[in-house]
Amino acid sequence: SKDEQAAYSHRDIKKAKDSLILASAIMYFLPGCPTVYYGDEVGATGFYDPFNRGFFPWDNMDLSLRDKFVKLGLIRKSHQALKSGEIEFEKQGEYILSFTRKMDKTKIKCIANLSGEVYNLRVNTKNSLFSHKCSEGENICLIDSGGFYAWISDN
Fold first, then answer.
1. Dihedral in degrees, nearest 10, Cα atoms 89, 109, 101, 111
2. Most exposed among 78, 113, 154, 155, judged by the fewest C-beta atoms under 10 Å?
3. Which residue, 98, 110, 96, is CA-closest to 29?
4. pTM of the model
5. pLDDT in tens, 36-89
């Protein structure tokens, strides 16, 4: 019912959007063609039929979420390694998804923190491409649970 749909708290909605950004970042950096269901990029919500997805929310768009999707699209478009490069998965720790996309001399490294703890990454943060739920310092990035970090590797 609409009452059940309205019962979602702001915390639930934030968690859902954070999960959407994490899943989308993984999708945009992995091989294949990223696919976005209309409205996801601006925070459109849905529920069970007949409320699963209404009209596009032109007057109620989440512009910060849209900006993340625009950035992901621009990154993918501007790096050939993400379109047709090789992929290598690396073991970083339990519940840490780590992979490198490479083509010619370009290496793009990605880490998704699927654990319940902060992941401490030593990295040159000047080469950062995309971050979500991360705190960057000089040569260090703290990736929160549910966070994603991608950078162009020096080595």
1. 50
2. 155
3. 110
4. 0.89
5. 988 999 998 877 776 677 788 899 999 999 999 999 999 999 999 999 999 999
